[in-house]
Amino acid sequence: MELWQAVLIGLFAYLGRNQVPWLFGTTGGWYGIGRPLVAGAIIGLILGDVKTGVLCGVAVQAIFIGQITPGGAVPSDLNLAAYIGIPLAMVSGGTPETAVALAVPLGALGVGLHNFTMTTQSAFAHRADKFAANGNARGIRMANITGTSISFVERFFIVTLTCYFGASFAENILNSLPAVVLSFLAVGGKMLPALGFAILLNQITSEKWMIALFILGWTLTSSLTITTTTLVFIAVAIALVYVMAKYSGNKAQALAASMKGDEYDE
Amino acid sequence: MMSNKKLTKKDVSKASWRWLFFHQSSHNYERMMGTGFCHSLSGSLEKLYEDDKEGLSEALTRNMAFFNTEPQLGSIIPGVALALEESYANDKENFDPEIIPSTKNALMGPLAGIGDSILVGTLNPILLSIGIGLSKDGSPLGAIFFMIVWVALVVALKYSLFIKGYQLGLDTIKILMNNELKMKITTALTMIGLIVIGGVASTTVKAPIIVQFTSGDMAITIQSIFDKITPNLPALLITLASYYLVAKKGWNSNKLLIGILGFAFIMVLFKIM
Fold it and tell me: Which of A39, B17, B96, B158 is the most buried (most CB within 10 A)?
């Protein structure tokens, strides 16, 4: 990997890190280019092989699809997982399964880095406290903005250096692995997305019967040749029918109840 | 003492943009988004306390307190707080400033819950799933689709919710208590999400069984038997088993990770997969 490529990857890793403000806050950053699907396309573009990048991104994304970040607690740092795992897998000639194998431990490692940054950034809140006491609003803004410098140092340097120096290291390891380990990685990598979907299912199903909808989507797609967009239209129709049927009957009751409430207020 | 310092549309819009970008710029475990909250309101507070340095420092300090929510849907909260700060600055005698932090504290928990479940827990994975579907052959189209739709939708929502919060002030709380709308949106999104995610999972999770029976010239692969029942059935069973372990047995993702890898190891060892 060329140095400029490692620098660019490090820069995007920083921009897609949690808390970094520059791309509409968390929206375009952590929940945008920080997602492995997008990271894969960006890394592919930088390394000159968009297709492989996207395929690696899809594979890593599937494992982490159920990932949310409640209260700033990161269960697994998928930004580090994607921005180091995908480029290292690509330059060492690996497959999407290799990217997955690298991404999983990196995700766990990233949690430690995240905790370090979340702890040290408190210093900027203390700076802002002093500015608040002096009635200096501009100072508070500067303290808040410069807080991102710790994220920058942490993410940019670690990703850039690991990508630059780790490439040949990763290649050597992958080349020296025996065939049985490689086929284990391949099979494991193919099955691991089940993890991401299981976590996601557990997170969004509010009632047990809803699992049937997941199986419906699965069997429709695997038995018929339909695109995801077609499936979205079918899903919207089913959801609308259900919501309309369930809630429209309550409308009159709810209205009556709220009118009663108003009278009581007056 | 009644005064009349009005914030203009431009002031509110500026505060909204500041929140939109810098809510977590110095996010930390001690105050979480507290500094970002104060940053967002700081310009307007400067205007409200133009010639009252003491009042300004009091207001700034008040808004530096611990604050944590889902910052995208929760952008309505700094909007509400800004409206309350404006009322207080204009009528200090009749307005209890304590209502500002208590309103923030009352709203941040519920909005974190709604935001985490609707926006980042459901909408984001749905759009990612569609993106994975579009990109599964290596085309960057899925990534581009996801970025455009997600960012356009959520930035518009984040900006307008802040403005809405400012316009409604304390009435926001009444509207947020409207459970029916919340239930409708959550249920519809969850159902759409489950069907779409099921479709994407069927093309992403794979469990290729290579073992086969041979008798004479006949070779029957186990995979082809399963495929006749329903295509990719082993992968569906593995996914449902994983869900069962998470939902019913309380497995966390690390335990499940080791479980799946262990299963893969055994399958490879016995040359089943």
Answer: A39
Domain span holding position A121: 3-204
B44 touches chain A (CB under 8 A): no
Paired strand residues for B221? B212
Residues A136 and A28 in one domain: yes
Q: Provide CB contacts within 8 A for A151, sequence distance 6+.
A: A14, A17, A19, A20, A117, A121
Which of A184, A204, A224 is the endpoint of a domain? A204
Residues A99 and A49 in one domain: yes
Please answer yes or no on whether A214 and B194 come within 8 Å at the CB atom: yes
If asked whether residues A140 and A60 sit together in one domain, one would say yes
Return d(Cα B64, Cα B62) in angstroms, integer. 6
Place of tokens 């993410």: A155
Average pLDDT of chain A?
87
B27: chain A residues, CB-CB within 8 Å = 18-19, 72, 118, 121, 147
Helical segments of chain A, H only: 3-15, 36-47, 50-63, 78-91, 96-120, 122-133, 137-146, 148-152, 158-176, 179-191, 193-204, 211-223, 228-247, 251-265
Rounded to an integer, what distance in angstroms lies between the CA atom of residue B262 and that of residue B136?
27
My answer on whether A148 and A239 are in the same domain is no
**Cα–Cα nearest to A56, from A81, A77, A75:** A81
Cα A51 to Cα A232: distance, rounded to the nearest angstrom:
25
B214 bridge partner residues: B219
A46 and A170 share one domain: yes
pLDDT tens by residue, B78-118: 999 999 999 999 888 888 888 899 889 888 888 888 888 88
pLDDT tens-digit map of A209-223: 999 999 999 999 999
Binned at pLDDT 50, 70 and 90, residue B70 comes out as: very high
How far, in Å, are A46, A57, A195 from residue A51 at the CA level?
12, 10, 24
Residue ending a domain, among A150, A178, A204, is A204
Any A CB within 8 A of B163 CB: no
Share of chain A above pLDDT 90, in %: 53
Could you tell me if A192 and A215 lie in one domain? no
Phi-psi region of A95 (alpha: psi -120 to 50; beta: other; left: phi over 0): beta
pLDDT of A227 strictly over 80: yes
Closest Cα partner for A111 from A122, A119, A121? A119
Whether residues A190 and B208 touch (CB distance < 8 A) is answered with yes
ipTM: 0.85
